[in-house]
Amino acid sequence: MITRRQDACIEISSTMAVADLARTVVDTAERSFGRWGIEYLGPDGTRLWFGVHRLGLGRKRETVMRFIVTVDADFDGAQARSQIEQFVCNPASGTFVPIGPRQLRGYPTYLAYLRAIRTAVLDADPGAHVTMVPEVRT
């Protein structure tokens, strides 16, 4: 079952060099987003792997979402696109509360990261074209 949240992504087209755009994507992940963090897991060709996890859990840290950001050359610079690859769902609540849709754990952190990437890229390249799905207002 695919949820609409699973399709959340960012698409970037920029005149920045590929290495500069990749560095911006990685540097943005090194911030914390509330009680959650995003960890850069490493490269795989043009794909950069990241994991979303709760902060403060020490060695028993549980990664609840993994996503990639693919960064490669475009005809006039670089392009990037994110994609959620693995995730954990919170169970739908039930007992006394009406059952609601399942939530992707770490999803708000992922969206905060996408907003932070958008801000960082537009600061570095005001002419960049950045699209978020779903469109998130800042």
Description:
There is one protein chain. Helix content is 22%, strand content 41%. The radius of gyration is 16 Å and the shape is globular. By secondary structure, it is of the alpha+beta class. The protein has helices at residues 18-29, 107-124; strands at residues 9-14, 32-33, 36-44, 47-54, 63-74, 77-87, 89-90, 103-104, 129-133. The longest helix has 18 residues, at 107-124. The chain has a domain at 17-88. It has a 7-stranded antiparallel β-sheet. The chain has a two-stranded antiparallel sheet with strand order 7-8. The chain contains 2 helices and 9 strands, in the order E-H-E-E-E-E-E-E-E-H-E. The two termini are 30 Å apart. Helix 1 crosses helix 2 (107-124). Residues 93-100 have low confidence and may be disordered. A hairpin with an 8-residue loop joins strand 4 and strand 5 (63-74).
What is the CA-atom radius of gyration, in angstroms?
Answer: 16 Å
The class by helix and strand makeup works out as: alpha+beta
Percent in helix: 10-25%
Number of strands: 9
Present the secondary structure layout:
Elements: E1 9-14, H1 18-29, E2 32-33, E3 36-44, E4 47-54, E5 63-74, E6 77-87, E7 89-90, E8 103-104, H2 107-124, E9 129-133
Antiparallel strand pairs: 1-6, 1-9, 2-3, 3-4, 4-5, 5-6, 7-8
Summarize the structure.
The chain has 138 residues and is α+β, with helices and mostly antiparallel strands. It has a domain at 17-88. 22% of the residues lie in helices and 41% in strands.
